[in-house]
Amino acid sequence: MNEDVLTGRCLCGAIRYRCGPRLYAPTLCHCESCRRASGAHAVGWLTVSSRDFLVTAGAPAAIESSPGVRREFCGRCGAPLTYRNASRPDEVDVTLGTLDEPGRAPPADHIWMEDAPSWDRPADGLPCHARSRAT
Questions:
Q1: How far apart are alpha carbons 82 and 57 in whole angstroms?
Q2: Spatial contact of 91 and 47, defined as CB atoms under 8 Å apart
Q3: Which of 33, 42, 50, 68 is most buried when burial is the number of CB atoms within 10 A of its CB?
Q4: Is-above-0.85 flag for pTM?
């Protein structure tokens, strides 16, 4: 298997996917939208070309979480899978937590810290950005 190709699945296994190579270093997002969509204080993401993301089993459900933003998830177990933004039509963000081998895509930084709760202060030594980072 190509070392740039990653595979993943939802919690229940109904949805499986293959993606890669990564376009940018993975990140941990602390924005309000990601927090509310996941129920977690941060969501790990990696970005791939839309043409390099393939669902290999099942069919994700989707919701437009805000204008121009489509989030895909498993309709059976609820696991969040992808984020697509109309402003970046050729890219798809994939949740790190659904990767079969998440250790192959370690986050490089934290983004949208201005939205993080006051108790959410990473101490992992990775750079923290108030908003987005330059990719």
A1: 15
A2: yes
A3: 42
A4: yes
32 DSSP 8-state letter: H
Residue 131 dihedral angles phi and psi, to the nearest 5°: -125, -135
Q: Which helix (H) or strand (E) holds 33?
A: helix 32-38
Q: Sheet holding 53-57: strands in order across?
A: 6-9, 16-19, 53-57
Question: What distance in Å separates the CA atoms of residue 11 and residue 80, rounded to the nearest whole number?
Answer: 9
Omega before residue 67 within 30° of 0, cis: no
From the number of C-beta atoms within 10 Å of its C-beta (0-12, 13-18, 19+), residue 132 rates as exposed
**Domains identified in the chain and CATH numbers:** 6-25+43-108 (2.170.150.70)
Give CA–CA dist 4/20, Å, rounded: 6
| Distance between CA atoms of residues 31 and 11, nearest Å | 23
pLDDT digits (tens, 9 = 90+) for 32-67: 999 999 999 999 999 999 999 999 999 999 999 999
Contact 50, 92 (CB under 8 A): yes
